Amino acid sequence: ANFMADRLATGLADIPGVRMPWPRQVNEVFTILPGGIDRALRAAGARYYDWGARGLTALEAPGADEVFVRLVTSFATTRADVDQFLKIARAMADHQQNTDSLSVAASLDGI
Description:
This protein is an alpha+beta fold.
């Protein structure tokens, strides 16, 4: 469980837009996800806990389209589970970055 939590935390920390306000604690990972990533993960069937803003300072608190979540791994969590979770999160982050880039390019065309 702890190894999978470490794998999950390490993978999430490398995804643009994902914030890790606290270090991994045993088999728990607390992270702030962009809304698009949260929605994509839930739509794919991921289950995890919305953590509100408990324990965060005002500067760390999730923004308007972010959610602070608690992810828990167990002895039953497989490498494939973690890799699929990260694949979905990374794909949505990439999609959001590409969409943002296209929006900026379209705005520049009008200059």
